[in-house]
Amino acid sequence: MRSQYSSVSPTRARLGKGVRSWTLDVERWTFSPPRPLRPAAAGLAFCLCLALIGCGPGRTDEPVEFRVPVTVAEVGTGVVEDRINATGSLRASQVISLTVESRGILNLARKGGRRLAEGDRVTVGQVVAEISGEDVRVAARTAATRRRFESAQSDFEATRELFEQGLINEAELRRAETTLEDARLEYDRSLLVEIRNRLVTPIDGVILTLARDVNGRPMADGQLVAPGFAVAQIAPTGELVADIDIVGLDVARIREGLPVRVLHHAFGDQEFEGRVVRLAPSINELTRALRAEVSVDNGSGLLRPGMFVEAEVLIERREGVVVVPRDAVADRAGKRVVFVLQGQRVVRREVELGLGDDRTVEVRSGIEQGERVVVRGLETLTDGSRVRVTGGS
Q1: In terms of DSSP bridges, do strands 110-111 and 114-115 run parallel, antiparallel, or are they unpaired?
Q2: Is a pLDDT exceeding 70 seen at residue 341?
Q3: DSSP letters of 336-391?
Q4: CATH number of the domain enclosing 281
Q5: How buried is 141 (Cβ within 10 angstroms: 0-12 exposed, 13-18 middle, 19+ buried)?
Q6: CA 72 to CA 374: how far, in whole Å?
Q7: Is there a smaller number of Cβ atoms within 10 Å at the N or the C end of the chain?
Q8: Are 262 and 309 in contact (CB under 8 A)?
Q9: Nearest-5° angle of CA 187, CA 193, CA 196?
Q10: Domain ends where: 208, 235, 262?
Q11: CA angle at 352 for the pair 351 and 354, rounded to the nearest 5°
Q12: CA distance 192 to 190
């Protein structure tokens, strides 16, 4: 739309004596017909009109109240424990080593048509291996010492008869008796050498290691072994010992006789029963930890010496108490509080806590069973905050 503008300047004229008249400015507008709008411009103009209508005096602005999204959980009862968590390694309660006394040839015992192997169970008095050969025979000298003993025994009997007949004095009898005792001692020593080269287990247990060389490789029968060579190590495994380290304030809380739960990741949540049987008399100077020995029942045979295990020492256990998730408890101004759901708002409650762990905690006062508490989204909550429950029980 275009316009043309013209004006008339004011003119002053005399209309009479003393009378003045003014001619006002007259504005004249000349309009030319508007050009048609393009479609895009027409649409834009229409939207602008709608926006102006919407912003008109008929619209009222109302305040929007924000509700905090939260997750809640119902307060219930459960079991809580005060325990010490520690880690340690399993070992056998005792280990027997069978070693070679004399240089000789190694021959392992047989069981069921095959020679013994690591992991086999043996019983008291069972032969594990024998050491044979000329060196063993020479070291034992059993035949020679036996003959000497038999000869000394005959001489003593004859000497005693002569003494009883009064043909010799007591000194000769005592010399014959001494010779007999020396011969008996030498013969017993020979028998002991023979026995020691016949390696027999003195306990029931499992063979942990058997006939391995310095490189850890199994040795075959017929190989020459030297004195001091460890043929086998045998240990009972029905009951193992877990050595755990106790540190910090827990040193004052642990004592002998406390029950212990032992776990190994290979067996999931399966627990093995144990008990504290011994506490070290001193603190380790390097780790500042107190060593505690835990006897672990291994009747199932699943646990093995050398395993790294977790141990939970139970100091106290309480059942049927009011518990809440640990995430429901907040620290506000040095006080432990929870937020209890009441309608669409929450109420802040101060609580007194008892025993607990990383997941749940006992509440001794402040809330009751059946109430619902906020477990997620409580970081910005205050007493009376409006909430919107998005999950939970």
Answers
A1: antiparallel
A2: yes
A3: EEEEEEETTEEEEEE-EEEEE-SSEEEEEES--TT-EEEEES-TT--TT-BEEEEE
A4: 2.40.30.170
A5: middle
A6: 4
A7: N
A8: yes
A9: 140
A10: 235
A11: 135
A12: 5
Structure tokens at 198: 């016949």
Tokens of 264: 């190994």
What's the half-sphere exposure (Cβ side, CA atoms, 13 Å) at 209?
19
Alpha carbon 47 to chain centroid distance? 68
The backbone torsions φ and ψ at residue 251, rounded to the nearest 5 degrees and listed phi first, read -60, -35
156 and 86 within one domain? no
Same domain, 308 and 345: no
Query: What is the model's pLDDT at position 364?
Result: 93
Residues 108, 216 share a domain? yes
pLDDT for residue 113: 84
Cβ atoms within 10 Å of 383's Cβ, excluding its own = 12
HSE of 158, CA atoms in CB hemisphere, 13 A: 6
User: In the 8-state DSSP scheme, what is residue 102?
Assistant: S
C-alpha dihedral sign at 364, 368, 370, 374: negative
Pull the structure tokens for residue 295. 């006897």
Q: Is 84 or 21 the better-scoring residue by pLDDT?
A: 84
Single-letter residue type at 205: G
Q: What are the tens digits of pLDDT across the range 295-309?
A: 999 999 999 999 999
Q: Determine the structural domain holding residue 263 and report its residue range.
A: 82-92+237-318
- % pLDDT > 70, the chain: 79
Are 126 and 175 in a shared domain? yes
Are 361 and 323 in contact by the 8 Å Cβ rule? The answer is yes
Locate tokens 């619902």: which residue?
372
Does 220 reside within a domain?
Answer: yes
Closest to 363 measured CA to CA, from 393, 333, 318, 314: 318
Here the tokens at position 272 are 């093995």
* Domain termination site, one of 286, 318, 350: 318
